[in-house]
Amino acid sequence: MRAAGTAAEPVAVTGIGxxxxxxxxxxxxxxxxxxARAPRGVGRPEELRDLPCDFMYTVxxxxxxxxxxxxxxxxDRFAQLAVVAAREAVxxxxxxxxxxxxxxxxxxxxxxxxxxxxxxxxxxxxxxRGARRVAPKVAPLSVNNNAASGVCRDxxxxxxxxxxxxxxxxxxxxxxTALGMLRAGRCDIAVAGGAxxxxxxxxxxxxxxxRALSTRVDDxxxxxxxxxxxxxxxxxGEGAGLLVLERAEHARARGATVxxxxxxxxxxxxxxxxxxxxxxxxxxxxxxxSALADAGVAPADIGxxxxxxxxxxxxxxxxxxxxxxxxxxxxxxxxxxAMTGHxxxxxxxxxxxxxxxxxxxxxxxxxxxxRRPDPRxxxxxxxxxxxxxxxxxxxxxxxxxxxxxxxxxxxxx
Length: 413
Known about the structure:
By secondary structure, the protein is of the alpha/beta class. It has a single domain, classed as Peroxisomal Thiolase, Chain A, domain 1, CATH 3.40.47.10. The chain has 13 helices and 15 strands. The protein has helices spanning 26-33, 64-68, 77-92, 116-129, 138-142, 146-155, 170-183, 201-209, 248-253, 282-295, 313-327, 337-340, 347-361; strands spanning 11-19, 42-43, 56-57, 105-110, 161-164, 189-196, 239-246, 260-269, 304-306, 332-334, 363-364, 380-381, 387-388, 393-400, 404-412. It has an eleven-stranded mixed sheet, with helices on both faces. A two-stranded antiparallel ribbon has the order 2-3. It has a two-stranded antiparallel ribbon with strand order 11-13. The longest helix has 16 residues, at 77-92.
């Protein structure tokens, strides 16, 4: 599958951490995503009351104070979710933060909006109660690096630390950035992925005005329907997905269990519009071809794609056409957003984790809520039930506002 001398050695995925509307752990999320049950995580936060889209996928039933203690006071909710996912990923990798070389551990967390939720809360305090009632921690909690720095503090990681923000491609770009760090020898271990928790009346109202959000207020659980002929927009989700990545030599030396291998990464920009994808699909095609070349993997080797698949009319058409041009009819394509929601900057981290789990289990999750497939979508979209498949290589794709495109190629361990 790999042509000699054409690509760098893959890095090992040794730990997976997930906190999503589908489950509070990687196992819970995977079991739910592959179950073909109706989405369970859709709620109506009070902050969204009376808006054209008043619903989103939420992580319910997780007691952050019990999980994180007083450190919750220094973390916006998106950062809290990141810390919970990072802890799971590190435990899954059987790493002990008390004994590793902390200077060789990197943390890279992507987010689109960062701490906007806390910012909005305090803006309301300023407007309603005055400047003297505003909390002094608005600046450190609202910045995009709150998750990356929070994970570093929690794990005691003192190596390179970055916050990546490329809209809905952020989580994928964060993992790709960590891949480059590991290959360059800047670290031995990287905790990388994405986190997001956006509950903002202003952003929801604005995005509704763009006609990007579904307005199926009478059927919120059925509103997110990627690749369906009746799709009318995406549904926001919150969550975090983080991977523990290691240089292959480091993983071998400590006898780590390798869940999957991260083999390649590609990125591009449409240079077209701040919000709409280039209808030619040239940008996502470039990112996909770049990731394949970086991995030394042929298009015919890709057996599965966890697509960006937002449930917006144009995105699904542009993305699926580009996938078909590059990969043909072979791959089993799915969008897991109907179970997790579109978690924006966290989406790439969540979906990379689900792609690794698909390779490990050789099972492709179904695209839930796909009832009337759009005949203009040219790829083979899995629907109805999870499908067993002999998978050796898979891709996870992300497209973001501002024309950002990012693709990861993973291979079976």
